[in-house]
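Example 3.2
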Amino acid sequence: MNQLYIKQKVFSLSGKFTVKDQEEKDRYYVEGSFMKVPKTFSIMNTSRDEVALITKKTFSFLPKFFVEVNGQEVLTIKKEFSILKARYTIDAAGIEVQGNWWDMDFQILQHGEVVGEVGKEWFTWGDSYRVKVMNEEMETMMIALVIAIDCVKADEAAASSVN
């Protein structure tokens, strides 16, 4: 089992940050496109090879984010039409998210089996998300999922501050 940490409030103007392991060693590098359409976040391994890509669909009535891992689209996060409270759904083949993913406290299941857990860590190298990976084959997808959810939250916060 691996534990990885993604620093909370990672989205800065440059959109660059790292994902670290429990020894605080870099495991992934993330770079966001700045002032580009469509908005993307590229996730790279330590060799700087792109292993995942998050893309926000442009010109869509409701926000939609696509997540690709190793060139294959693995999941979509989309906003549902709702009058009172923002509601999002996560669509992924064989992948299910159970818990409060808006507050970053959830489990990731593959075909009903827990393959990862995400939660808040308060006394690490700054407030961060802890990602426990039980199935190492799913590690990149889980990191991409957590970053995509944070993208959705940042996008929602930006949209609500405009209104």
